[in-house]
Amino acid sequence: MEDNRKLVEEQIIESYKREEEMMILVFAQWCVNQGLDPHSLYLQAYPQQEGNEALRKALALTVSAEEAGDISDDTVLGVLSLFGNDDLAQIVTEAISKRESRAHTGD
Is the pLDDT of residue 107 over 80? Predict the structure, then answer.
């Protein structure tokens, strides 16, 4: 019985890690699509995570904006909020505001 419980816990942890990796990939690809540096934005939110392995893996999986499908602002913010990634969501929100401000001023 104890072995079953431990196995289930391990499966849940692995599932969460895969989902978290997908969240980071969505973030990284959104950045690429927007012409932003995912590593730089991530470090603004989490300066103590310079060598984040999940981010490194996600960056290796991103494709050019031309190859990628569109990822809406709402999608990236929704995915970040699902994981309670409020610090990174704040940085993304600021990047969106800057982009919209530039679009309105014609810069």
Answer: no
Q: What is the C-alpha to C-alpha distance for residues 33 and 63, in angstroms, rounded to an integer? A: 9
Degrees (nearest 5) of the Cα angle 38, 42, 45?
150
Closest CA to 91 of 25, 26, 35, 46: 46
What is 43-89 written as a DSSP string? HHH-TT-TT-HHHHHHHHH---TTTSPP--HHHHHHHHHHTT-HHHH
> From its phi and psi, is residue 35 left (phi > 0), alpha (psi between -120 and 50) or beta?
left
pLDDT over 70 for what percent of the chain?
98
Q: What residues have CB less than 8 Å from 58, skipping those under 6 apart?
A: 21, 24, 25, 27, 28, 38
Distance of CA 95 to the CA centre of its chain: 13
| Measured distance CA(38)–CA(18) in Å, rounded | 19
Contacts of 37 (CB under 8 A, 6+ apart): 31
